[in-house]
Every structure is written in structure tokens, then in C-alpha cells.
Amino acid sequence: MRLRLAASYAFSLALLLALLLLVDLRQVAGQVVAFGVLPSLIYIALYASNFFFRAVKWKYILKPFANVRLADSYHIMMLGFFANNLLPARIGEVIRAYALSKKYGIGKVKSFATVVVDRVTDGAALIGLLALAFAFSERIPAAFEQLVLLPVLVFAVLLAVFLFPQKTKRLLSPFVRLLPEALQGKFEFLLEETVVGGKALRGNLTYKVAIWGSSAAVWAIHVLTFYYVARQMGLPLGLVDLALFTALASFAVMVPAAPGYIGTYEAAVAAFFVAYGLDVNQGLAFAVVTHALQLLTIAVLGYWSTHRLGMKVGEMLNRSL
User: Fold this and answer.
1) Deepest in the core among 39, 96, 112, 149, taking most CB within 10 A?
2) pLDDT at 305 over 80
3) Which candidate, 262, 256, 297, places its Cα nearest to that of 94?
């Protein structure tokens, strides 16, 4: 565990140090300061709205297992995001599952499976943004085509697992039989509890519409927030370009790193700007503005949600480390 945490910090630090060699910090700082207070508040309001739709999505993913109140879905989800800001390696996903299990009595494995399903639907929506960008943009660098293959393949396979659990079990059964008998039952239990987490994706039409509709709203809001900042900073990026940017940056921050995905996000933004032939100083300024405002929004909403759930921040950290 400690080795994984150390590796997460080291990875983020290496990315940040590499970025510092590429930019003029005075230029970056000047552009960040010039963004202004009012545009920052508008961005925060836009960005904060995506968490309502995230809460709706998770509520309907959970429908087959418990009738979770929308307020609880929101606060438990925000607890997870808040923990990801404070802890490395995306431990907040585990804390979110633990809080759900404790409050609603859903098994820990099943609770975590619904969090995985939530993230898989995010990945599927991001694949949709990539498809949109590749269909309507003529300025996508050729290197991006190879870059997105792995995350697209991973999320497509994961989505197929949750959509077609019986076929997944049949495909895995020969490999399960190779395990020692003592492990076969445990593996089958874990597999069953995991794939059942996607039950809402396979049944009630209302659940599916709510899940995929709210997922589309979440990522549309992300694209619009980036578009707003790009316009404020005078960047020559349209909605389709920023759909691609949103997908690439979001895939990048799924990599376990330091708290708040510091380093991975900035590196992804810088790589995007370099690939598009734009000023890397502007790119890092764009990254600092958007990232700082995202972290601030999550900190405020997450702190509120933590206390609404009757928890203390110190208690949450102690349980996690």
C-alpha cells in the first residue's frame, strides 16, 4: 500500500518537473491572474452543476439494490470526490463504496461494483465524445488516433462485461477451472457480485434513460465549461476540439496519481496544446485555471457533504491511510 502511494506521488512529481522545463512561469502566472474573479465564479457555477447529474446517474445505477435518496447519492458521491482531492491513487472510490455500504447495507463488493459501473458509463460517454470529434474535426493530430486506442478498448470491454454478464461468465469459466478449488468459489462470488452491479444497465428502460441521459449531461457540461474558459482566454478552440480535449484529459486523470490528479491533468493539457500547435504557456495557464477551480469546487461541496453525512475530515483520512 505504502509503495503504491509513493509511486503515485513520484509519478505526479515527475510530470510536473518535466512541465516546468517547457514553460515560462512568469507568462503562465500572468495569464492565470488575468482570468479574473467573475469568470472564475461563472466557471464554478457551471462546473458544480455537473455533480447533480452525476448523483442522478448513480441513484439509478443503485436502483436494483436500494432506493437511495438523491440527496444521499449526491453527498456520498461528493465524499468520494473530496477524498480523491485529499488522498492519492483515487482512494476516494473505495471510501465512496464504504460509505454507501455502511448507510444502506449493500455488500461492500456490490457497492464498489456500482462505483465501477458509474466510471464505466463515464468512459462510454467519453468514447462518444471521441467519436464526435473524429467525425466532425479535420484538425485532429494523427498521433491521437493511436493514443486513444487503449482507453477505448478497455472501457468497451468493461461495458460489454456489465451488459452481457452471462457471456462473460461463459468466457471466463475455462480460466476459473484452472484455479485451485479453494479459490474457484471466491472468484465466482466476486465475479457475480461485480457484474450484478451493472443490473440497471440491462433492465428497466427508465433506469437506462436516466443513466445515459444524465451521463450525457455531465460531459456536455464539462465541454461547455472548457469552452467558456477557452473563449475567455482567447484560445482558437471550438466545441468539437474541446470534446476531444475533455475525453483525453479525463482518460489521463483516471491514472492513479497524487491527490486531486495533480500532474496527470496538467501533462495531458500540455500535450494537447503541443499537438495542436498552440502555445504551451497558454496551455499550462488553461490547465491551472480549470484545475484550481475544479479542486476548489470539489473542496467546498465535498466538505459540506462530509459533514452532512455526519463524518469528520480527519476521521475519513485516518480510516483511509
Assistant:
1) 96
2) yes
3) 256
Number of other CB atoms surrounding residue 219 within 10 Å = 20
CA 61 to the chain's CA centroid: 16
**What CA–CA distance (Å, rounded) separates 270 from 253?**
13
**Three cell numbers, residue 159:** 461495458
What is the Cα–Cα distance from 242 to 107, expressed in whole angstroms? 39
Which pLDDT band, with edges at 50, 70 and 90, does 105 fall under?
Answer: very high
Give the Cβ contact number of residue 256 at 10 Å: 17
Which of these, 116, 6, 99, 1, lies nearest to 315 by C-alpha position?
Answer: 99
**Residues 99 and 182: beta-carbon distance below 8 Å:** no
What's the distance, Cα to Cα, between the start and end of the chain in Å?
A: 9
To which residue does cell 443503485 refer?
62
Query: Average pLDDT, stretch 255-283?
Result: 90
pLDDT in tens, 229-267: 999 999 999 999 999 999 999 998 887 778 888 999 999
CA distances to 100, 212, 239 from 225, rounded to whole Å, are: 30, 20, 10
